[in-house]
Write a structure and sequence with these properties.
Number of helices: 20
Low-confidence stretches: 1-5, 7-20, 405-421
Radius of gyration: 31 Å
Mean pLDDT: 80
Number of strands: 9
Length: 506
């Protein structure tokens, strides 16, 4: 019977030249391509194949496959993998476990089967897999040496390739450290060289949201036809949950004690759920404003709380981020001086900062946001500005100064927190509140921060019951327009005129 030229099955023998033969190994088969290269497989006949083996295993097992049998490096990898598979085949047929080659691909495969890897969240796993892929590419460039031969100088040189990408460098170092910890547990190495590498966390580029930013982008979301996005922003601002977790909240008018679902209780106007970090059940009440907004934007036929008006379906993480980016781009085009480049996920950190500004302690913040105490301390050390509000709260908590601009003493003189800005606003008379809001805004103009001055006035006027009605869509639109001019005189004139309008409101 004539041999099948399209599927030779001898011993993987290919004739490169009339007088040269190439032995790739037992059970290696070649499938020729039109361009002269080959698809190379390890193919065991069905009658000899142990249970669980694939009928075709591409060679080389890892790394790039060009099928160019004149590439000596690729041929060597094919031969090595074929020999390892043949040894494993013989062991499996005899019921003997054959030891895997102790290189980086084998280590990654073993690590991904551990419970530590499997119990991480899908988003975390995705990040681990990405950075492990970078490490595998580096290992491949060195022809996959044994893990035990990876020395400190080589690892340092590899990490130096990411000096211009400090965040990637740090994540690669973390994943490589986890891999080598696993190698240590397997007795492949006697010491993890990554443990000796000290690397500071890169400076964060995340910007913290201010109240003016929140008001501006909520207004922009509403103008863009996404009230559900506006409700999501305000929810993140008030309860500070991970964006991926916040999107999973469900709405219900019939909440029952003992439910395990993360729900918003419309009757009680509170979020009720189990904290993933602490394992405790928490109830977080929300403002009247957010409660009203959630009632208005919730679709009872939707399974989840936040609805994407463009698709008619609940937001997922990727879609929410992309839609906010679209809204941000439109807002920047309309008011470039007013629209700061912010990201949706930074609302979680912003909630931590705003809670600290309001005088909340670290344990109190942790009970709301679910962060660990160490994480909150790190966030505050990086993001909490040492500003007037922080200094005011600190002195008010000591009982040294009034807690509010009208001279009322702090209720926290014996250890509690300072009064929130909304409470201060409500306790002031209309005239005192407008004067206070006007002064804060004009101080920002004097500090050459016109956009923040407009945002501050909008936010402050919206907090008092007698002036909140002034802050309508036309008012916010005029504010964005004058902020976009970046003209300090125009901005100051607009602030004075807006305050006259607020004084006249009854």
């Amino acid at each position: 019977m004539a041999p099948n030229k399209n599927n030779p099955t001898t011993r993987g023998t290919s004739t490169l030249m009339p007088s040269v033969t190439l032995d790739l190994g037992r059970y290696v088969t070649l499938r020729p391509r039109a361009d002269g290269t080959f698809r190379v497989f390890f193919q065991v006949p069905a009658r000899l194949r142990p249970q669980g083996w694939l009928s075709l295993i591409p060679l080389p097992v890892t790394g790039t496959r060009t099928g160019n049998l004149q590439d000596l490096d690729e041929v060597a990898r094919i031969q090595a993998d074929a020999a390892a598979l043949f040894a494993k085949l013989k062991g499996d047929r005899r019921g003997v476990q054959v030891e895997t080659r102790r290189d980086m691909p084998a280590l990654v495969r073993s690590w991904q089967q551990t419970q530590r890897f499997k119990r991480t969240k899908p988003a975390t796993q995705k990040g681990y897999v990405y950075h492990a892929g970078l490490i595998l590419a580096w290992s491949e460039s060195r022809k996959h040496p044994l893990v035990s031969t990876m020395k400190l100088d080589k690892i340092e040189a590899y990490l130096a390739l990411y000096d211009n990408r400090p965040t990637t460098r740090r994540h690669v170092k973390i994943v490589l450290g986890m891999l080598l910890d696993h190698a240590l547990a397997l007795d492949w190495i006697i010491k993890n060289p990554v443990d000796t590498i000290k690397m500071a966390a890169p400076k964060s580029r995340v910007r913290i949201w201010e109240e003016g930013d929140l008001e501006f982008y909520m207004f922009a979301a509403a103008v863009c036809g996404q009230p559900g996005m506006a409700a999501l922003m305000l929810t993140e601002w008030e309860v500070g949950q991970r964006l991926s977790d916040g999107l999973l909240f469900r709405g219900t008018w019939s909440w029952k004690p003992g439910t395990k679902a993360a729900e918003y209780d419309f009757r009680g106007r509170a979020f009720r759920f189990w904290q993933a970090k602490t394992g405790s059940y928490v109830t977080i009440p929300v403002s009247e404003r957010l409660g009203d907004m959630l009632e208005e934007t919730w679709d009872p036929e939707s399974f989840y709380l936040f609805r994407d008006a463009a698709t008619g379906r609940p937001f997922n993480g990727q879609r929410a981020s992309h839609e906010f980016e679209r809204i941000r781009s439109l807002a920047k085009a309309a008011a470039p001086a007013f629209a700061r480049h912010l990201v949706l996920r930074a609302l979680r950190h912003s909630c931590v900062v705003q809670l600290a500004r309001s005088g909340a302690t670290v344990p109190e913040i942790a009970s709301i946001t679910g962060h660990s105490v160490a994480s909150i301390e790190h966030i505050l050390s990086v993001y909490l500005p040492r500003d007037n509000q922080v200094a005011w709260n600190a002195q008010a908590k000591r009982g040294l100064i009034p807690a509010s601009p009208d001279g009322s003493r702090s209720r926290s003189r014996r250890g509690g927190g300072a009064a929130p800005a909304e409470q201060v606003a409500a306790e002031l008379s209309q005239e005192a509140h407008v004067w206070w809001a006007r002064k804060r805004a004009l101080d920002l103009v004097d500090a050459n921060d016109g956009a923040q001055a407009v945002a501050s006035l909008m936010s402050d006027l919206g907090k008092h019951p007698s002036t909140a009605k002034v802050v309508d869509n036309a008012f916010m639109l005029s504010g964005m327009q004058v902020a976009g001019s970046a003209d300090a005189r125009k901005i100051a004139a607009w602030i004075r005129q807006a305050c006259k309008q607020a004084w006249a409101a009854r």
